[in-house]
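Reminder to self: tokens first, then the designed residues, so the page reads top to bottom the way the pipeline ran.
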């Protein structure tokens, strides 16, 4: 199995995920990982972030993003994990890891996966700020970031 895709409530251990990527074989000369954290841009006002998804649909969308990356770059193991439920500032929220023979492909594929995940994965976010909850709109910067991968 070269792809591992998880959507889960539980926290994850980035070191264990990196080890899974390493176990994919000696042909990988590079492993690139990204761990996203819940950030509080409001200097302590963010009390929590709630992530909702459609089971099955979300995993299929993530698998499709991985397939797109595999069509662009020669990749070994690929791991995508995204958390759902209530998270606190500083919690792990997303992990993307890519193994490849060369560093350039690994870096590019990891960036591609994050850009497309932010644009295409069906997650809905709600913030709790000072006791008030509101759904978060998708950021235009996330939509724009994915455009850099469009080819003519």
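Designed residues (152 positions):
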């Amino acid at each position: 199995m070269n792809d591992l895709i998880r959507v889960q409530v539980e926290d994850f251990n980035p070191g264990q995920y990196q080890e899974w990527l390493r176990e994919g074989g000696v042909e990988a000369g590079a492993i690139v990982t990204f761990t996203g954290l819940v950030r509080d841009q409001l200097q302590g006002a963010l009390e929590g972030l709630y992530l909702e998804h459609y089971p099955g649909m979300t995993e299929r969308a993530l698998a499709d993003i991985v397939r797109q990356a595999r069509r662009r770059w020669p990749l070994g193991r690929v791991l995508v994990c995204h958390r759902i439920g209530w998270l606190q500032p500083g919690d792990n929220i997303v992990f993307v890891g890519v193994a490849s023979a060369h560093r350039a492909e690994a870096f590019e594929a990891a960036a591609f996966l994050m850009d497309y995940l932010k644009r295409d994965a069906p997650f809905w976010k709600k913030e709790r700020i000072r006791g008030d909850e509101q759904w978060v709109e998708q950021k235009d910067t996330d939509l724009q970031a994915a455009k850099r991968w469009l080819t003519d």
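The longest helix spans residues 103-120.
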